[in-house]
Amino acid sequence: RGPMWRERPLLATVLRRWIVLNREVRQGKRKGGRIVQVNPVGQLCNRLVAITSAFTFALMTGRALHIEDGGFYCQMSDLFMEPGFDWVSLGAAGLSGNTHHLQNPESGVWSEMEPLLCKDYTRHYKEPTVVFSINQYLVPWFATNPHHREQLLSLFRPANAPPSIPLVKEEGDVFTPAAHFLFRPLDMILQMRDKYVAQHFKGHYVVGLQVRSGGDFTDNFMTEHDWGLYKRCGESATPKSSGASLKYFVATDTPRGREAAVKFFGKENVMFGPGEFLLSNHPRGVQMALLDLLLLAASDDRVTTAWSSYGYFAAGFSGVPANTVVDEVPKSKWVAPKGVEQRFMGVMHKSDRRRQCVRLPVHQPCFHKYESWGASKATCSKWEWFEREMLGGRYC
């Protein structure tokens, strides 16, 4: 795992002060207190990266954080302990009627692109309440804003890191410490994880395979060729000197995917989360999806599916860049050549053209919409930002 928030002295100090601010604003005890509300959109990991984005914005702008905990199959309290502060009930503060809404655009350039990339947030977002209704990880935009970049880098930089390290390096990681600060699984779920690891991981080199195999993602169910690609990717990730037998922990999105994995790998070489496969459309199903996520993060290495926020979160929570299965782009150092970044890691959304295994250069979640929401059209835009923070969009 990557460095945790406690190991960043400045961040730990700022968080202690922010927790006090958060409590006082929410209780109506701080005059002029301001709030960030996040209405997370989408499935589990879309919601978690959205919450992380809103939290980072709140921390940077001295605002309290409120999570609108509805519209999903379970409550935050079904999954996580409160992270040292109340994040659902607003108490005496309530929400001001004077509100600025930031919402996923349906298409085209986002109206919030210019201020998020170029403006001073404390001057531009003057309303007492700022509401994020999003499903994306916006931190790469925050990190290129000239008014806030150094603030963000300084806040999340480890004690011994040189000052010039960019966010794409592990030493400048925002997501791993922020996610571990925010998302503290219930003891019940942690105990299930620890018991499973002790019973099934011990004595093996475990590669976690995060495989989206169902019709919600691809046009056709995965073939043996596709499974073989994940298998070879896992084998290539295994140190030859480890001396431990290779086993696969498979987190997939359909019961049919589990059946196919057993058939392809052999029952003795593959394992799944405890119990029967459950859809994540009720509290227990979401809890088991979170358990799978923690087991992926606990694996010795990971192979994930391009475009999947679930795989991105597992890698980010582990603090180690994952291997990802992508399209093949001949004669290209990276996965997608400059100019066609919207292919997202060489695999268009719902593509079945899986061809090769690539070790990602970073472990933070991808911001898919970095450029498609208009980053290059910002008045302060510099291509070097896009290239530096997102490798030109080619890593996701």
Describe the structure.
InterPro entries: XG_FTase. The structure is a single chain. With 396 residues, the protein is of the alpha/beta class. 35% of the residues lie in helices and 13% in strands. The chain has helices spanning 9-26, 44-61, 113-118, 121-124, 139-142, 149-156, 175-182, 187-201, 224-236, 255-265, 283-298, 309-318, 383-390; strands spanning 35-38, 64-67, 80-81, 99-103, 129-133, 184-185, 204-211, 245-252, 270-271, 301-305, 323-326, 356-359. The strands form three sheets. It has a six-stranded mixed β-sheet, sandwiched between helices.
* Nearest-integer average pLDDT: 83
CATH domain class name of the largest domain: Alpha Beta
Helix content: 25-40%
User: Measured on Cα atoms, how large is the radius of gyration?
Assistant: 21 Å
Which structural class should the secondary elements be placed in?
alpha/beta
Strand line-up across the major sheet: 9-8-7-10-11-12
Structural shape: globular
- Ends distance: 21 Å
Contiguous uncertain segments of 5+ residues: 165-171, 329-351
Q: SSE order, as H and E? A: HEHEEEHHEHHHEHEHEHEHEHEEH
Describe how the helices and strands are arranged.
Elements: H1 9-26, E1 35-38, H2 44-61, E2 64-67, E3 80-81, E4 99-103, H3 113-118, H4 121-124, E5 129-133, H5 139-142, H6 149-156, H7 175-182, E6 184-185, H8 187-201, E7 204-211, H9 224-236, E8 245-252, H10 255-265, E9 270-271, H11 283-298, E10 301-305, H12 309-318, E11 323-326, E12 356-359, H13 383-390
Parallel strand pairs: 1-2, 1-5, 4-5, 7-8, 7-10, 8-9, 10-11
Antiparallel strand pairs: 3-6, 11-12
Helix pairs in contact: 2-7, 2-12, 8-11, 9-10, 11-12
